[in-house]
Structure formats: structure tokens, C-alpha cells
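Researcher: Next sequence.
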Amino acid sequence: MPASPEFPLDELVVRAMDGSPDSGFDCGRADQTDFLYERAWEDHQAQLSVTYLYYFGGILAAYATVGMDALPLARSERDPAMRYRDVSAMKLAQLGVHRPFQGMGLGRVVVGDIVELARDEALRVGCRYLTLDAQPDLVGWYESMGFERNVLRQAQRIRDAIEHRRDPDTIAVSMRFDLRKHIRG
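Model: Next structure:
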């Protein structure tokens, strides 16, 4: 997954969160902005996830939060040699790009960076997939980067949504990126 040439990578500084972020970040999605300010540092300290901050010109331009996951796969979703129903994965739990930096390719750069992080970790702990939960309006964007829908997990979510009288068309879509299928470029 090549990084977008629109964003000047040589000026991007990435570091793991080491405290509450400065105010002013807004990605235009309340859930992601609120997570950054209300839960990211607490979850980071509790070792539930790690949040990476992406700075451009000293301004917080984007963030990504990752954690571990286990992905249940239907037999039809698995490689023939894959014996396990639940497969190891890293999860891209949150992603936000600050409004002034949207449309420049930074989101693709961040996703590419997290794919590389998952590939590196896979050499140490065994990790086949990078998973995420995409808002319905972002599914096509993630598919353009090689992510595909998780049939079994999404079917479970749809059943749960119906049971709790929520509209299944508005729930997040479970997706995965196969770290073995998509070889480094």
C-alpha cells in the first residue's frame, strides 16, 4: 500500500501518546474526536491500546489507535490450509485526521503506517490480519486500500443490531487487511 504522494512525508513526525493531547484537534467525527480526548490516554495507560500521534509542522494532524484482536472467520473466508476459526489480528481501533489536513492523502499515509506496524509485529507475535470497524460511508475508501469485509463478524453484528432494534445499515462494518496477501511494495 503506497503512501499518497500528496502529503510531504519527510515533514511528518510520529510518536506514541505520552499524555493527554493538546486541545484543538477536530476530525469532523464526534466519536473519534471524543475518543482522542476522553479515552485514548486512559486506554493507553491501561495497556488496552496504543495511540500514535502524527504531527505536521508541530500541529497534531492525525492519530491512530491500535490494539490486538482475534478475528472469527467462516470457512468460506479462510485459506484452505487455515485450521483455526479465530485468527490473530491487530486492530486499527480509531483513526482521525484533523480537518485542515483532510483531502491531502494523510489518512492513507496513516493506514499504510499501521499496516507496516502490523507486519512488523507479525514477525514477533504472529498476526495475519489488520482489522477495523469502518463507518458505512468509509467502506469504499478502505476497500480501495485492500481491506475486505468480514462476513462472519458482520453477520453477528447485524443479528445483534436487529435484536437491539438498531438499524443494521448504520452500524460499523467489520473489515480486514490480509498481511500475507498484500505483499510490501
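Model: The chain has five helices and seven strands. The first helix runs from residue 30 to 38.
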